[in-house]
Amino acid sequence: MNFPEPFSGNGIYEEIPDPQIRVKSNHRISIIFSTVSHQSQNLILNEKQLQSAFTALGFPEQTLSQETIEALYSLGHSLSTESTNSPTLSSSPPGIDNYAFHSLWSILTTIQNIFHYLDLDHDMLISPFAQNQGFHQFTQYLNSTAPEGTLYPRQIPPKTTKRYYISPSAANSVTLDMFVCSCINQYQASRLLLKLDPFGTGVIQVDYEKFLYEVSELL
Fold first, then answer.
1. Contact 90, 110 (CB under 8 A)
2. N or C: fewer beta carbons within 10 Å in the chain?
3. pTM reported for the whole predicted model
4. SUPFAM superfamilies given for it (predicted)?
5. Domain coordinates of the chain in residue numbers?
6. Rounded distance, CA 86 to CA 103, Å?
7. CA atoms of 155 and 59, how far apart (whole Å)
8. Average pLDDT of each block of 10 consecutive residues along the chain (219 residues)?
9. How far apart are CA 45 and CA 70, in angstroms?
């Protein structure tokens, strides 16, 4: 089973060259998933276990706020219910399956790498201008891993791909947690647009009831 590779952090979207490295990485993620989810008979992660699994894989503890964890969990649950061999909402309690956890981890580490790539002075803060550049890079990543024939709605690309240091003030600085949460919300909105406008016409024609239902599924 193939999983999307994280963004490398050097401005280039490329797969890890050695297949053995990819296999070992996916195997480690699966082991962590199994270890953390062992208390669940359905082998799924709940919200609390999701944070524990991220920590076990090396993501800095207490970096993500409860709001961001909830956003990641909501995305992971959506991905789980969409996979063919996943428990459904009607037959099993909500949670995140192994495949969705792999995808979530790839997305999370990609967002983290983009943030560090833009954080030129390594103070764990970026400016709103850098955040907009990050949104564009994240959209590029999504499109690089999307199924053939589908594209996520693109943000207006920045005028330059160069990184410029703009000192973020205390009033408008963006933390890693804020950037992760914003990217996940952007991804969820893009998924909704793809679902309602699968042919990319730029026009959505849907009744209020269906629209509210689809939005509620993402929350």
1. no
2. N
3. 0.74
4. EF-hand (SSF47473)
5. 19-218
6. 14
7. 28
8. 42 43 74 83 85 90 91 90 54 78 92 92 90 90 65 46 54 89 90 78 75 66
9. 13
